[in-house]
Amino acid sequence: MPDSIEQAKRALRADLRERRQTISAHAREIAEDGVKEQLDALVESLGARSISCFLSTTTEPGTHAFVAAAVARGIRVLLPITREDGLLDWAVATPDADITEGLFGLPEPVGDVLGPIAVNDVDLLVIPAAAVDRRGMRLGWGRGYFDKTLGSMEKCPPVYAVIFDSEFVDDVPRDVHDQPVSGIVTPTRTVRIAASPA
């Protein structure tokens, strides 16, 4: 059975990846503005002073403008750094930080590296996703970094996945290690997902 789940995930990821490739540069700019507006409002509503966020790739809904504005407002933003062992290190975002290509070609900060437990102190986690379903189950890109991070946190704060509107779907394939999210942020809306029994 796990093989069929993995195959379903692979097929859905491939479809979503292909759809993201077709989004125009102009539409991406509009999406980044919308994501910034939605995340700003979410941070404000939660009173978050310390958050984690990811640096988006060119095909993801953009987070760079949000991160820069949050840092400028004095919010502590931790950015993930991928490790070979499947865990995430973290670095504090700064206004003038360099960005380099990490494992898998992902944009990552250059700076003082904090260990995996640094994220335990944040008020909000903002994470990437390929899709999220109505129950809050998240389909990631298959490397398991964020599932491991969420699964290892003793006291997990709210977790919001950033996706395009069309990626909020009825159902995603789910495996035992997959971790749900508290809600989604898209370029046009923020949806809080009520916790439901697994």
From TrEMBL:
<dbReference type="GO" id="GO:0035999">
    <property type="term" value="P:tetrahydrofolate interconversion"/>
</dbReference>
<dbReference type="GO" id="GO:0046872">
    <property type="term" value="F:metal ion binding"/>
</dbReference>
<dbReference type="InterPro" id="IPR024185">
    <property type="entry name" value="FTHF_cligase-like_sf"/>
</dbReference>
<keyword id="KW-0479">Metal-binding</keyword>
<keyword id="KW-0436">Ligase</keyword>
<dbReference type="InterPro" id="IPR037171">
    <property type="entry name" value="NagB/RpiA_transferase-like"/>
</dbReference>
<protein>
    <recommendedName>
        <fullName>5-formyltetrahydrofolate cyclo-ligase</fullName>
        <ecNumber>6.3.3.2</ecNumber>
    </recommendedName>
</protein>
<dbReference type="GO" id="GO:0009396">
    <property type="term" value="P:folic acid-containing compound biosynthetic process"/>
</dbReference>
<dbReference type="GO" id="GO:0030272">
    <property type="term" value="F:5-formyltetrahydrofolate cyclo-ligase activity"/>
</dbReference>
<dbReference type="Pfam" id="PF01812">
    <property type="entry name" value="5-FTHF_cyc-lig"/>
</dbReference>
<keyword id="KW-0067">ATP-binding</keyword>
<keyword id="KW-0547">Nucleotide-binding</keyword>
<feature type="binding site">
    <location>
        <position position="55"/>
    </location>
    <ligand>
        <name>substrate</name>
    </ligand>
</feature>
<feature type="binding site">
    <location>
        <begin position="9"/>
        <end position="13"/>
    </location>
    <ligand>
        <name>ATP</name>
    </ligand>
</feature>
<dbReference type="GO" id="GO:0005524">
    <property type="term" value="F:ATP binding"/>
</dbReference>
<comment type="similarity">
    <text>Belongs to the 5-formyltetrahydrofolate cyclo-ligase family.</text>
</comment>
<feature type="binding site">
    <location>
        <position position="60"/>
    </location>
    <ligand>
        <name>substrate</name>
    </ligand>
</feature>
<dbReference type="InterPro" id="IPR002698">
    <property type="entry name" value="FTHF_cligase"/>
</dbReference>
<keyword id="KW-0460">Magnesium</keyword>
